[in-house]
Every structure is written in C-alpha cells, then in structure tokens.
Amino acid sequence: MGYNFKPTAEFWWFVLVTFATAILTQLVSFDPGQITDWRVWAVSLGAGGVRAVAGAVVAYLTKPGEQD
Asked: How far apart are CA 47 and CA 41, in angstroms?
C-alpha cells in the first residue's frame, strides 16, 4: 500500500492535531466541579449531539450505491 502525499489534506491534519493537542493539554487540569451553571453542560451536550447527527447525515448522503 503506497502513500500519496496530499498537501491540502496534510495541512488540515496538521491543524487538527495542533488544536487537539492544545485542548488535551488543557483537559489535564480540567475540574468539572468548577462549572456550576447547568446551561454550560446542556449546550455542550447539544453541540456534541448536533455534530454526531451531522456526521451520520454526511455518511448517509455520501454512501455509494443506492442513489436515485
């Protein structure tokens, strides 16, 4: 299996890994008990749900095969 270098894809992986690393380093000292407003958790859960549904819709719409 060969590897095709794609500059655009590599750039976006670079951005993703950079942000993920920065976020994960902040999570090390994260204390959920400090967030006392339940609305923060509700918005966070809602955003995660929207992202999950969007991913499922994109996967369904781009599925090869049974397209009309």
From this structure: 10
